[in-house]
From TrEMBL:
<dbReference type="Pfam" id="PF00593">
    <property type="entry name" value="TonB_dep_Rec_b-barrel"/>
</dbReference>
<keyword id="KW-0408">Iron</keyword>
<protein>
    <submittedName>
        <fullName>Iron complex outermembrane receptor protein</fullName>
    </submittedName>
</protein>
<keyword id="KW-0472">Membrane</keyword>
<feature type="domain" description="TonB-dependent receptor plug">
    <location>
        <begin position="46"/>
        <end position="158"/>
    </location>
</feature>
<keyword id="KW-0798">TonB box</keyword>
<dbReference type="InterPro" id="IPR039426">
    <property type="entry name" value="TonB-dep_rcpt-like"/>
</dbReference>
<dbReference type="InterPro" id="IPR000531">
    <property type="entry name" value="Beta-barrel_TonB"/>
</dbReference>
<feature type="compositionally biased region" description="Basic and acidic residues">
    <location>
        <begin position="36"/>
        <end position="48"/>
    </location>
</feature>
<dbReference type="InterPro" id="IPR012910">
    <property type="entry name" value="Plug_dom"/>
</dbReference>
<feature type="compositionally biased region" description="Low complexity">
    <location>
        <begin position="14"/>
        <end position="32"/>
    </location>
</feature>
<comment type="similarity">
    <text>Belongs to the TonB-dependent receptor family.</text>
</comment>
<keyword id="KW-0813">Transport</keyword>
<keyword id="KW-1134">Transmembrane beta strand</keyword>
<dbReference type="InterPro" id="IPR036942">
    <property type="entry name" value="Beta-barrel_TonB_sf"/>
</dbReference>
<keyword id="KW-0410">Iron transport</keyword>
<feature type="region of interest" description="Disordered">
    <location>
        <begin position="1"/>
        <end position="51"/>
    </location>
</feature>
Length: 746
């Protein structure tokens, strides 16, 4: 299932630059080639720190029917992805990730995530910019602070994804999948030469799925999504001296993210949600059915262009340049999720534009030191406009407990602006101290200038004016690798990183809290790791294990100010992530492929004394102004995640056949930053099975497969959120889905 990336390459290898083209996938790594049982060794960047990493190849994405980042967490242990729609996604690795937005329900778009996402070397300012996982060559999931080789905010880790590039051999493929619950997915790819030096590639994807939520008022199936996208590429190649890869992509997506009522709670003998519902005539339904007079819908348009140029200079020097521009526009219409009208046509529009320029120089390899240095520039402009429009009735005031007429037809408007610029030089290299010992070290210095404003109208009016902050963010890493024996290596690594500061431009603080309440300081992370890797039984058995410890200070999350009694995003003390992980890949024969991996992760606050109290405390009499969560677990951090898969292949009657199965387990976790018992996400395991066959024709190969996701129809929640008056709402995960995929390629 996964390829565990090993330690740095031995001295004397001649690797290419980082982020090698897809048809020359990196790594002094062992990768699983899926239908081929042998594992091929390919070269990796010797300057990359040899810390824990998992690789999933494009073939494995197709075999496992993985089409989104949320699906990827079923293959990679320690990875946690929470998403309701592309505009609202949090990624966590080993318990380190995005800390904002889970209690108030507002996304903080002025604060970057701790796990950075890169696509073909381009930093994505928000994870939702990765619209689809189609046509991938491979994806690396790297844990720990990675800020020296990856220049933006990667204190928790990196998702480094690479698409397939144009080929000079003609090829084309088409696949179509259909399944239960209106599941459909069609993908078409064509690639080939355009002239002696030019090749092109076009990838088209259309997908849709029905939702697991039924609105009993009109019979609509909600929580589904539809997406259409295209990605075109041109490749110019002048022998080994120069390569230019141009790409452009576009995606248009619509969805109906709809939470369901999971539970209501009585505090001090009173269930306030049921009491308020009775007063306004709200029909209370639990589970996968809702009664809504209005329905949420989101519309997202995004895309971008990029140019990647690589020169092979004299004496083995290499120069790489990556230039990019991306845009992201989200325009949701939000409902109040009740059966009576409390809000009317509310929404939260976001318009995000980002651009970058990355330069990297690689020194000649093969000597005692392999090193690289470079410079990265990132820019971003973000604009938001949010409306909370109350209905033209008396119901909003009854529901909120405000005086008659206070909320009627009220439109609370919030406008935010963010401008971000950063420039960061870096250098990193590996010293081959002996034939069996490598020392890797790197440093990056990121100068960041950020400005923005927040304005609120019609309720608690507030105007920050234009604010500016400047931060200098250092990152550093050092690691030692010892190849103790053929097929056996160990490593020790330490790193330090800082994530960019932020501004509260979507959920700003109250006026009396002062302008300082809008500014979020940089988040700081220190990480250490010890690991071992062994290749046994003629490389048919591959083992990997490590222990890790990370400390995060100035955690950027949601907190509570006891003086002003306001909830907003701020820096909240410190926490520790520590644990161990292990993985095994075994091919006992050419017909069998067996993979298993697991992570134990103990993540807890060492200092969080002014946290927002959970509703079970806030709704009780004489509730304190804030709560102390020091010593308690961090949210979005399951203690145990584990994955296992098996695949068996055989030939019969001229056909290639296979059967496969996988199982992914994760233990319970706190779903909101206040560590509420109401919103604890229960642990769950998901099983998937597939079987298929393929055969050759005169010009190509056809494939057919049958697959079953969530085979045991486990009811699970992607996210649980504390809502009004002690109620808890949740976003349901995938239902059991039986489907078939047919494909043809030549």
């Amino acid at each position: 299932m996964l390829a565990a990336m090993p330690c740095a390459a031995k001295a004397g290898t001649v690797p290419g630059p980082a982020d090698e083209p897809a048809d020359a996938a990196p790594a002094a790594v062992v990768t699983v080639s899926g239908s081929r049982q042998e594992r091929s060794t390919v070269e990796d960047d010797p300057r990359r720190t040899p810390t824990s990493a998992y690789r999933v190849t494009g073939e494995q994405f197709e075999q496992q029917n993985v089409t989104s980042l949320e699906d990827l967490q079923q293959l990679v242990p320690g990875l946690n992805v929470q998403s309701t729609d592309p505009a609202d996604m949090q990624i966590t690795l080993r318990g380190i990730g995005d800390g904002g937005g889970q209690t108030s329900g507002e996304q903080n778009i002025g604060m970057p995530g701790s796990v950075a996402v890169y696509l073909d070397g381009v930093y994505l300012a928000r994870p939702g910019m990765l619209s689809s996982l189609g046509d991938l060559a491979w994806a690396d999931v790297l844990s720990g602070a990675q800020g020296t080789m990856f220049g933006a905010n990667s204190t928790g880790g990196v998702l480094d994804l690479h698409t397939k590039e144009p080929t000079f051999v003609p090829e084309a493929s088409i696949s179509a999948s259909v399944g239960q619950h209106d599941y459909e997915r069609v993908r078409a790819v064509v690639s080939g030469p355009l002239s002696e030096h030019w090749a092109g590639r076009l990838n088209l994807i259309s997908s849709s799925n029905g939702g697991a939520v039924t609105n009993v008022r009109n019979g609509h199936q909600l929580n589904g999504a539809r997406s259409n996208g295209a990605r075109g590429q041109l490749l110019f190649r002048d022998g080994d001296r120069f390569r230019l890869r141009l790409s452009a992509d576009y995606n248009n997506a619509n969805s109906e993210p709809t939470p369901v009522l999971v539970a209501t709670h009585a505090v001090n003998g009173t269930d306030a949600y049921l009491v308020r519902s009775a007063r306004v005539g709200n029909n209370v339904l639990y589970g996968s059915t809702v009664d809504l007079d209005d329905e949420t819908s989101t519309h997202i348009v995004q895309g971008g262009v990029a140019a990647r140029a690589e020169w092979l200079l004299g004496s083995g020097w290499r120069l790489r340049s990556i230039t990019s521009y991306r845009y992201f526009h989200s325009a949701p219409s939000l409902a109040d999720y009740q059966s009576v009208q409390l809000y009317a046509n509310s929404g939260f529009q976001q318009h995000d534009r980002s651009w970058s320029q990355d330069l990297r120089v690689d020194a000649p390899t093969g000597g005692p030191v392999d090193y690289a240095f470079g410079l990265t520039y990132l820019g971003q402009k973000l604009e938001i406009e949010a409306h909370t429009r109350y209905a033209d009735t008396t119901l909003p005031d009854i529901w909120l407990g405000t005086a008659t007429g206070v909320s009627r037809k009220l439109d609370v408007i919030r406008q935010g602006l963010l401008r971000d610029r950063s420039l960061s030089p870096f250098a990193q290299g590996t010293w081959h101290a002996r034939e069996d010992i490598d020392i890797t070290a790197g440093v990056r210095f990121n100068h960041e200038e950020r400005g923005g404003s927040f304005v609120r109208y019609n309720r608690s009016p507030f105007n920050s004016g234009y604010l500016q902050i400047t931060n200098n963010l250092p990152s550093a890493t050092v690691a030692a690798t010892w190849r103790a024996a053929p097929g056996l290596s160990t490593y020790a690594a330490a790193s330090y990183g800082e994530k960019a500061g932020g501004l509260n431009i979507s959920s700003g603080a109250a006026a009396q809290a002062g302008l300082d309440s809008l500014i979020i300081r940089p988040e700081k992370a220190r990480s250490g790791e010890l690991g071992v890797k062994a290749d046994l039984a003629d490389n048919r058995l591959n083992l990997k294990a490590d222990i890790f410890l990370s400390q995060v200070r100035d955690f950027q999350t949601q907190g509570y100010d006891p003086v002003d009694q306001q909830v907003y995003l701020l820096n909240a003390g410190a926490y520790i992530s520590r644990g161990a992980e292990a993985s095994v890949h075994w091919t006992p024969t050419r017909a069998w492929q067996i993979d298993a991996s697991a992570v134990f992760n103990d993540t807890y606050y060492t200092d969080y004394r002014t946290a927002r109290c959970p509703p079970e405390v806030l709704l009780a009499p004489n509730a304190p102004k804030s709560c102390d969560l020091s010593g308690e677990g961090v949210f979005n951090a399951p203690r145990v995640t584990a994955n296992a898969s098996v695949r068996y292949e055989w030939n019969a009657a001229g056909l290639k056949n296979f059967v496969a199965g996988r199982y992914a387990w994760r233990s319970w976790m706190y779903g909101t930053v206040d560590n509420s018992q109401f919103s604890r996400v229960p642990g769950y395991g998901l099983a998937a099975f597939s079987a298929g066959t393929s055969g050759r024709t005169d010009k190509g190969e056809w494939t057919a497969s049958l697959w079953l996701n969530n085979a045991f129809d486990k009811t699970y929640y992607k996210r649980l959120v504390n809502n009004e008056y002690g109620s808890v709402t949740g976003y349901l995960g995938e239902q059991r889905t039986l489907g078939v995929t047919l494909g043809y390629r030549y």
